[in-house]
# Entry
Amino acid sequence: MNKFIFVLFTIILGVKFTYDGDVLVLNDGNVNAAIKQYDFILLEFYAQWCGHCKEFAPQYQALAQRVKEIKINLQVAKLDAGGNEKQAQNRYKVTSFPTIMMLIKGFPVPYLGDRSFNSLIDFIGVTMNERTKHISTIDDVYKFIGKNDVCVIYFAQEEHDPELKVFNNVARMFPNIAFAYTELAVARKFYDTEPKQVILLRNFDEKRKEYTGKLNEQELGEFVQFFGTQSVEDLDYRNYQTAIKSGPSLVLLWDQSSERAYQEIKLIAPYIKSRITVVSVNQYNRLFNQAVQDFALEIVNYPTLIYVSSGQTFQFQDSITQVNVMRFIYQANEGLLKKKTRSQLEPKRQGAMYQLVGTSFIPYIENSTEPVLVQFCDKFEDDRCLKYEYEDMALKLQGAKLTYIELSQNEVEGLSDIYYQYFYDYNISAALSLQPSGKFTLDTLINQFTTKLVFSEIKILIPVIQYFMGFGSSGFLFCLVIYYFRDSNLDLF
# Structure
């Protein structure tokens, strides 16, 4: 069924805004104008080639319709970042699709829940409802500070201080930090503050930080972000994907003997944490071994420092000092360093389905004297990568090798865009993309595979047949790689 897109043009400050249904369509050219026009924007970064984005699209349209029906001060928007639109993507550190965030006066509040309608509605409620607590007695001030690890207090001049709107907006940006205001003169005297002053109190590092800038959302938000969160995060399940897989992140693996390196990283972290997640992985961290495996570190020498950016990893090779680390990050960002190939360790035992890893993929394909059927899968996106029926397929296929590789765990040059581009040509002469009709089954795959194995009298295989097949909604793509024998110089295409 064709999808009808209803377009509405609105001219604001000379910028045209387009709507897809009830969803505001943004791009690098108009996102800043939208931020100026709308205080609250729920923004989805998506890509046209992303399967999960396509599945989510009807849900997002329904959410936009619901927001319109209840008439709240919120724009539901989307931005296609899968092509050339990179400025907003880089600005908000988007590394995967779909990524959803609430922009409050342009300040991002990331959405970390599932993509269900109810969860998104709850997120909208949390970020848009007023979170600032009004404290009317000095005892309540003591209690508020005592029960919160981090809190921000605005010492208003009066109960209905006009600057409270700005303070309330900043409170919405940080759902995990407590915000309160009080107009009590006794509280100002006790905490030695002036009217209209903001202080941040925390139970780590320097306990008290005073805000001295202008009372606007952007500057106060940056102040709270800088001082309200710990500069160095411990690795956990919440930040694992960003820290280890996508970045940008600076990850330190260390033990007690390398405490000095950890202290150096703590000195650097406050100045880069707004754009780079700084993560500590002590040897006793429960995710330590998993991180070591994902970084493909056969031997861990303490301390080990790794920089992750756009899914690429770079290993630091010098002594850990502030100057050396900052130079290392700069050189990595400028493409002056050789990246570390992301790869699992090659399994010691192999089953009927041969597991390929980043470091073994190209040698295995190039050295094979038989056709190779590769199943590309992603254990973070689909759990059927190792389904038993594919092992059965490996036993049924004659004259071919059946393999798989987990793209979330391994990096192969030329395969970063496997989900929407043709298979990379590793000195293989030609490629053909086939799209099966009807329901895809194990038998149809075997039949289509074997019918393509045409041997000449001199025993030369067809150069390449590539399959790009969607296996339901699982995200599987099968790529059939049929490789020349080493002694073949015949070009059949």
Summary: The two ends are 37 Å apart (CA to CA).
